[in-house]
Amino acid sequence: MQFSAEDEGIADAVKHAAVVDLATGVRLRVAAVADLIVLKLAAAVDPARRPSKREHDIADVLALGVSAALAASIFHDGLHTVEEVKDACRARDLPMR
After folding, report:
1. How many CB atoms lie within 10 A of CB 6?
2. pTM
3. Which is the most buried residue in 39, 42, 76, 84, by most CB within 10 A?
4. What does the pLDDT look like over 34-80, one tens digit per residue?
């Protein structure tokens, strides 16, 4: 999954990321699933994004283990900010920071 430095919520994802040392000596920062879900749901409800991109964001959320019904209910709530998405996730008992 790709995000840019301008994406709302990316700072939290970077702050919470775990450092993973690969056998090759490469160190990776890996975002927490909860942060990825928030970023992808926020992207999915962004009206400025193309519908095909928004559909892909929902598919990514499903791949991260969120049920289709839950993703659909969050997607259709008319949310517009990362904080609104986080609040919706918390209300549905998803672990958010």
Report:
1. 6
2. 0.62
3. 39
4. 888 888 888 887 888 888 888 888 888 878 876 556 666 665 666 55
Structure tokens given for 49: 């994004």
At 6 the pLDDT is: 65
Strands (E), 27-93: 27-30
Paired strand residues for 29: 19
Six-digit token string for 78: 């008319």
Tell me if residue 95 falls in helix, strand or coil: coil
Distance CA 95, CA 18 (A): 16
Inter-CA distances, 63 with 6, 21, 25, 48, 67, Å: 24, 24, 28, 23, 9
